[in-house]
Design a protein that fits this description.
Blueprint: E1 2-4, H1 9-12, E2 18-23, E3 35-36, E4 39-40, H2 41-55, E5 61-65, H3 74-84, E6 91-94, H4 101-107, E7 115-119, E8 122-126, H5 141-153, E9 158-162, H6 173-176, H7 183-190, E10 196-201, E11 209-212, E12 215-219, E13 242-248, E14 254-260
Parallel strand pairs: 1-7, 2-5, 5-6, 8-9, 9-10, 10-12
Antiparallel strand pairs: 2-13, 3-4, 7-8, 11-12, 13-14
Length: about 280
């Protein structure tokens, strides 16, 4: 499936680059009052969206990279879309391991996967790395074939690839057991295509940035709980929820940063050993 996103006049006149905003790992419940390890995830998510509204007046593409739900139900996804609505930007979603297939696809009908999102000189290839009822990720043979064909089609554009699971180990021993299991095949497919600039993912609830074989691999904070970097076992971080923004230039250059909530009062059970 190929989608075409309209380019604002200010971008076409080269006044500014394309602005992409990435959100991830909301872990929402059907009941907005339900808490995850002490945190009201709807409240933290709503607060991050309000921060984006304040900081990002010109969003050209909004990308959600999975684990929208902790309780995968149509009600959860309907409230997610309603919370996102004020951003008023072209919005595309990828499921995470908590987004069970049937509920996700019945409650969130905004784009098909896999797909290519064409926006100016860039193409964002969005892939589903989930396996129902499994924490770790894997690409099906059909998804890998689609990726190969999409990269052939998009040789004349700069390419950004997005998925939920991390293809590269982030250095958390407990978390890296649940990364993308087909990463070596993924790397092999990407290798001949020098126009692949970026791979964005969620899943890890922390900032991760690494260059591997000339491709930049980036994650973003969760809008809910944060995982402590370089931890051997499940450990929550005290960092605040947040999001990532990227500026995509017509020549393939990009800039990026992460923004977090400030003065956000919340309670989390830091003694927990998982959820």
């Amino acid at each position: 499936m190929i989608y075409q996103v309209e380019i604002p006049a200010s971008v076409l006149s080269q006044e500014r680059p394309l602005r992409l905003v990435q959100c991830s790992d909301m872990h929402l419940f059907a009941d907005p009052a339900t808490k995850l390890l002490g945190l009201n995830t709807q409240h933290s998510f709503q607060s991050v969206i309000e921060l984006i509204q304040q900081q990002q007046p010109n969003i050209d593409l909004l990308l959600t990279t999975g684990d929208i739900a902790q309780q995968s139900s149509p009600e959860t996804y309907q409230r997610f879309l309603a919370t996102m609505q004020p951003l008023r930007a072209p919005h595309f979603c990828i499921p995470g391991n908590h987004d069970l297939d049937e509920a996700y696809h019945s409650g969130l009908r905004i784009n098909q996967l896999p797909c290519e999102v064409i926006i100016g000189n860039w193409c964002c290839i969005l892939l589903d790395s989930t396996v129902d009822h499994e924490i770790a990720g894997s690409f099906s043979n059909s998804t890998l074939e689609y990726l190969q064909q999409a990269l052939e089609r998009q040789r004349n554009r700069h390419v950004l690839i997005a998925l939920h699971h991390n293809p590269i180990a982030v250095g958390c021993e407990w978390l890296d057991q649940h990364m993308l299991k087909t990463s070596q095949t993924f790397f092999k497919i990407l290798q001949p295509f020098s126009n692949v600039k970026l791979v964005l993912h969620g899943h890890v609830h922390q900032i991760f940035e690494q260059v591997y074989e000339q491709v930049n691999y980036l994650s973003c904070p969760s809008t809910s709980l944060q995982f402590k970097p370089k931890s051997a076992k499940f450990t929550l971080d005290t960092a605040n929820p947040g999001y990532r923004w990227l500026d995509l230039y017509a020549n393939g250059y990009f800039e990026t940063d992460v923004c977090r909530l400030e003065n956000f009062n919340f309670y989390i059970d830091y003694q927990s050993d998982g959820y």
